[in-house]
């Protein structure tokens, strides 16, 4: 569950077109810079409180919050209409704040649950092996997400892929620009389900953050 969560939570199909995606929604370069500064500041400011919150409500609940927040923050930009630029900026601002909260909430909590589970089974020495396997799966997840995300963002390339399979479909950039977000939204849902299936031991002494 630990490895599945990490791969699902961190593999974002929109990463290879991150900047272009924001600009295609009508945001300016200055607004893009502001949004990412807000995202980084949110993570820094929420990091310590999230660790304290994990001790109060438990790490699993914090991870449930993180994945639910991911669903919401990806969902709002996936389906926001391209109408009023000021509304779009506000929606993306909310997205960046929520994304920062999700990152801070997930930081360390999942590792702590996984390590405690190994320790309870008497296998803490296997932690290095777990991280090794995680790195392999995450690398594959990143490569797949980046490759697919870039391919489905390009309407011309996506059209050629469809033609290769005998499908006469024409796409517009207005349509394909949201495809990486839709796939990431699906991953967020699966990450949420995976988190619900996690089991947290009552360690009492460890914290996340």
UniProtKB/TrEMBL annotation:
GO terms for molecular function: transmembrane transporter activity. GO terms for cellular component: membrane. The chain crosses the membrane at residues 13-41, 62-80, 137-158, 179-196. Keywords: Membrane, Transmembrane, Transmembrane helix. It is a multi-pass membrane protein. PROSITE patterns: MFS, SUGAR_TRANSPORT_1. Gene3D superfamilies: MFS general substrate transporter like domains. It holds the Pfam family MFS_1. The keyword DNA-binding does not apply. Coiled coil: none annotated. It is found in: Membrane. Its main location: membrane. Residues 1-209 form the Major facilitator superfamily (MFS) profile domain. This is Major facilitator superfamily (MFS) profile domain-containing protein. The lineage of its organism: unclassified sequences, metagenomes, ecological metagenomes.
């Amino acid at each position: 569950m630990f490895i599945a969560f990490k791969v699902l939570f961190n593999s974002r199909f929109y990463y290879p077109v991150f900047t272009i995606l924001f600009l295609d929604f009508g945001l300016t370069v200055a607004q893009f810079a502001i949004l990412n500064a807000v995202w980084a500041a949110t993570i820094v400011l929420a990091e310590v409180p999230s660790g304290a919150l994990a001790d109060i409500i438990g790490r699993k609940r914090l991870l449930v919050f993180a994945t639910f927040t991911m669903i919401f923050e990806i969902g709002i930009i996936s389906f926001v209409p391209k109408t009023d630029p000021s509304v779009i900026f506000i929606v993306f601002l909310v997205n960046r704040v929520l994304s920062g909260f999700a990152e801070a909430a997930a930081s360390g909590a999942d590792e702590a649950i996984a390590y405690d589970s190994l320790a309870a089974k008497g296998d803490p020495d296997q932690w290095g092996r777990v991280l090794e396997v995680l790195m392999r799966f995450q690398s594959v997840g990143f490569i797949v997400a980046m490759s697919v995300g870039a391919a489905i963002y390009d309407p011309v390339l996506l059209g050629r892929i469809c033609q290769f399979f005998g499908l006469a479909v024409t796409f517009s950039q207005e349509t394909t620009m949201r495809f990486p977000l839709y796939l990431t939204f699906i991953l967020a849902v699966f990450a949420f389900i995976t988190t619900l299936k996690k089991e947290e031991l009552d360690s009492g002494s460890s914290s996340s953050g």
